[in-house]
Amino acid sequence: MAGNSFGHLFRFTTWGESHGPAIGVVVDGVPPRLPIDEAALQHWLDRRRPGQSRFTTQRQEPDAVRILSGVFEGLTTGTPIALEIQNVDQRSKDYAEIKDRFRPGHADYTYWIKYGIRDYRGGGRSSARETASRVAAGGVARLVLGDGVQVRGALVQMGPHKINRANWDWNEIERNPFWCPDKQAAADWEFYLDGVRKSGSSTGAVIEIVASGVPAGWGSPLYRKLDADLASALMSINAVKGVEIGDGFDAASLSGEANADELRMIDGTAQFLSNHAGGILGGISSGQEIVARFAVKPTSSILAERQTVTIDGTDTAIHTKGRHDPCVGIRAVPVGEAMVACVLADHKLLARAQTG
Amino acid sequence: MAGNSFGHLFRFTTWGESHGPAIGVVVDGVPPRLPIDEAALQHWLDRRRPGQSRFTTQRQEPDAVRILSGVFEGLTTGTPIALEIQNVDQRSKDYAEIKDRFRPGHADYTYWIKYGIRDYRGGGRSSARETASRVAAGGVARLVLGDGVQVRGALVQMGPHKINRANWDWNEIERNPFWCPDKQAAADWEFYLDGVRKSGSSTGAVIEIVASGVPAGWGSPLYRKLDADLASALMSINAVKGVEIGDGFDAASLSGEANADELRMIDGTAQFLSNHAGGILGGISSGQEIVARFAVKPTSSILAERQTVTIDGTDTAIHTKGRHDPCVGIRAVPVGEAMVACVLADHKLLARAQTG
Amino acid sequence: MAGNSFGHLFRFTTWGESHGPAIGVVVDGVPPRLPIDEAALQHWLDRRRPGQSRFTTQRQEPDAVRILSGVFEGLTTGTPIALEIQNVDQRSKDYAEIKDRFRPGHADYTYWIKYGIRDYRGGGRSSARETASRVAAGGVARLVLGDGVQVRGALVQMGPHKINRANWDWNEIERNPFWCPDKQAAADWEFYLDGVRKSGSSTGAVIEIVASGVPAGWGSPLYRKLDADLASALMSINAVKGVEIGDGFDAASLSGEANADELRMIDGTAQFLSNHAGGILGGISSGQEIVARFAVKPTSSILAERQTVTIDGTDTAIHTKGRHDPCVGIRAVPVGEAMVACVLADHKLLARAQTG
Amino acid sequence: MAGNSFGHLFRFTTWGESHGPAIGVVVDGVPPRLPIDEAALQHWLDRRRPGQSRFTTQRQEPDAVRILSGVFEGLTTGTPIALEIQNVDQRSKDYAEIKDRFRPGHADYTYWIKYGIRDYRGGGRSSARETASRVAAGGVARLVLGDGVQVRGALVQMGPHKINRANWDWNEIERNPFWCPDKQAAADWEFYLDGVRKSGSSTGAVIEIVASGVPAGWGSPLYRKLDADLASALMSINAVKGVEIGDGFDAASLSGEANADELRMIDGTAQFLSNHAGGILGGISSGQEIVARFAVKPTSSILAERQTVTIDGTDTAIHTKGRHDPCVGIRAVPVGEAMVACVLADHKLLARAQTG
Lengths: 356, 356, 356, 356
Hints:
The structure is a homotetramer.
Chain A: E1 5-6, E2 11-16, E3 22-28, H1 38-48, E4 65-67, E5 71-72, E6 75-76, E7 81-86, H2 108-115, H3 131-145, E8 150-158, E9 161-162, H4 183-198, E10 205-212, H5 226-235, E11 240-245, H6 256-259, E12 263-266, E13 269-272, E14 280-281, E15 284-285, E16 290-296, E17 306-309, E18 315-318, H7 329-355
Antiparallel strand pairs in A: 1-2, 2-3, 3-7, 4-7, 5-6, 8-9, 8-10, 10-16, 11-16, 12-13, 14-15, 17-18
Helix pairs in contact in A: 1-3, 1-7, 3-7, 5-7
């Protein structure tokens, strides 16, 4: 019920605002005796951390995560793991002038209408800063999943520019500032995004998350379908406007013959000959790679002046001078990975509960 | 947690298999003193009912809904409303030959792996027959929403063929067997789908659901976002592979200037000048129309022979002779409407709880 | 959230009113491939069934349970099990005169204030008839627990008359109409309760539920403590006003030395030398017998005239002429057993989820 | 599901161990625009704080609470409120010798069996130190309830010594170190407890919580009954072994005539002439005072040597030299108040959701 918690058995609760003293997450339901330390979690947070290239916001946050509970002598104890990240580079002054105006594309207006109060500093609770907590939780989820399950993400489209899937090379994603698996596309995007950035504009993106090593049998009918939980998880990320599993919207254009993945016995086990389904049938994992994609809208904070109104009901205009990402989709890659890892960890435990 | 329940405050639980004696749904959390009778619910069930045109399965099910509890003298009492629908036209013999073989594209394989047991008759629990329960629950949800909120759906793409949005006319959707708002597209689809049907093939579809009259302020940060719940709701429908809100995946290609909806005072109230966001900002309704779309894969049951394996691990082939929909997306329209209505009813109550 | 559901992983939802067409329960989360049939569930329902002695209401209900889903070829499938019981002997005329008056001790007044509508026939949803659904769910829970766990209940106090615990013999509970484990007390109670019954009065009772065979390690800190869930489960039964675990309220009078159960290695395993704790420490089962007790208030429907008011705010009086139990606590024994079985089944699955 | 969260709409999640760096709680679902500051919460924490008399543990903890999120310019924002309390006086050395031995009456053994790992320092997660987080959450709950609802607690029995209810004076509870409403009993207890303390023993207690100002209509049938949630809330407190509502176990001894509270129109409104029910009928508040009691077992840490075993399965003995409460029930009074306040705040929101 609580709007700031996610998951069922592997469940986390996040708290904190962009310009408060800290943000954090409490992760509950973690199995005991898993080796864990702050460095293991920091690895994932560093991937999401801003200010690492000219293509992300220049806000300087070390995002150093601290474990406050749930760990004893280097092992999880089965009790809730509280993780905390101090806010360091807050610069509240950047935001003073937007105090009374609703930024188009942001949650300013809806928060104001709903709550009648708004922490306008950096978006408050609606800031993408909250996603650091998700990444921390995702780090714990990966420990629950173990080495057998690998969750990786890649940017497959920036603005209107898609990768050439024939060029896909997972090794490339660490070699460019975009988590792009297509070396050529990454080069093109660098030129493209520099233009966007210099003009003070922004652009959207599509991210693909692939989970390999997931055994068949995770997920449930009907409202706890693995894909339904993935859809909820990914749509809950700031600025996401669409989610796909497997062929996604392209499946609508296919014939039944083209879409349904055939089975054959190979090396003594049943194997699918294709993966249009994205590794999920009837809400349950099939043993194939889980493939999910999500679309991120362009960053709403842009330099161009935009029409808006004040909280007092007066027409005005606004343009954003703060530090922002020209393509917030880039930093959504580790966030998407984290959310998928959390869903999978949850369903690993759920599957164990019902079917042992 | 329970995989067969949906919602938080307005919450329903479905049960039943395709070829069991009945299916049903228990709807909990309904406010008291709402006028309700079986006819009001039957209206919505009749829209989903099979066998009404040559483009849906010829299984003949009256889908007569019966209210077993929660209603007294024509009014809801605030206690759970149990709704039951008898299964009439079951014809189990149709399915005997697929008892030991996994139908590609269906949940046969994953249910078998997960549960080690499978009600193979008509897909058992994974059958789209379960969606009748959702439509019944959606009927109750509409009563909770009241006349001020209208939830309507339309088929906007069949196979590769999209409507021309310039032709959109809500009055058309009742005039063709496809819930198509574009008269010309409906005519074209009739020809197209006849070809698909006669060849024993199938095709996918995209459905758009529009909710009007939703006040600003429904929804919550962050994991109970209105769009996250909509994504979960729609992705939980059988055969759905993608969900979008507002511009959806197209938002990835937009610039920040094009995407962020501007605000202006009009007639004394703040109004948006466009609706790329689909009526949701930061997970909270903005007062605009809520716009969601979902993609349905082509029906997996097709006449063409397809490779598969048996439950004993032997290569074999299968083709479906039973009664099926050439485009199951058509009947997904009332199901999508119902799920959106349920999410909105839930968030209406949630909003009232926290902010009075 | 939904007020008519209980449990987390093993979760059931009940519906139905005393004088509606039927009552029922949907049990979700059941592991697959458990042998089950209607007779196995009927066994437990027959123990709660009214009209079996002169000490329970003479309402004649066969309480025949029907399985509508979730079972295939005699085995659970892992999908929701819908159970339904027809209401047969409703006699609505019995209740016509109490339509506009609140019966003292009943929920009439609070339902009216809360909902503004009231199914006055037999208490509607607040009738103890709902407990038949709990017993049906408990029958499924016992299958989940397996033969290794035994859940038994006994009446240990009727009105002011307690059993002599030195006489405790589980074999006696089936030999008297009270589920009393003390042969002598049962004989005394028969005389006592006849007096209560003939005078049109009623009396309360205390029930003790003992679960043996529960392994150490079920339960969780802190708000999912096994005893917290048991307390919720038992207090949710109609007319229950108190719950105890182990020594319960008597523990308040003990010294630390007397209360804390010591441990010794016996036959190679750690064993407790006493069981003041009632088999639960820190919310987690210790491997000893789980011992819970609950107090049931006297039946509120009595022959004596009692002061009350009408729904229109007029002073009046009421006395109950319908069929009622002189000691509703008797029939609460199988209900208490069922609730304890449901809590244990739930925690069995929860334990498996987190700690494998 | 998550074992460290409590509540539905007003929901809190606690974390932290006795000897970790800090403990804390995240409170979600709080309505916006409620005035709040750290001093308002500190008031309640100071009541539970140890070391204030010779009758509580001499551990010196300032228990200074810090608000980390969810508050802006002195008002709640509707987003999660993170509260944190540093652990200051940890003295881990006190506990080194009990590292490998299970303390009788504590959760040491069950945590070890369940998790296979145990933070033995001060009981780790099972320490009563966690209750400080509950009290902090309770402070927020009181803000949600507003001034119209008052939640007060009193010690009504220490060891075998009960108060004389005729002497009840709420003004007395702040004038003695026991929260005792009976001046004479308080004087007697001081003598009694000094004896217990000096002998290194301990004693149990019974606490009564009274909530006044609760309107009729809060609570729900059947598994979200107000009393069922109170039972769960109070039984979840460390060392609690029993919970009663209204007359509780004494109700079992009453006749139907004596137990059922009659109604009369007084000053134009329906009023009950007695309150055996403890303010709850059918799980829903009646508008009378809510009365709940709970029994706390004697502190398990005592000076006398007690038999136990080691984690390696060897017989041994143990006696506790650390700082402990001779009657932990004293400090349970503010904890019980806090839990009742949280349940009521939750049901206030739940009631508003369903019935407006």
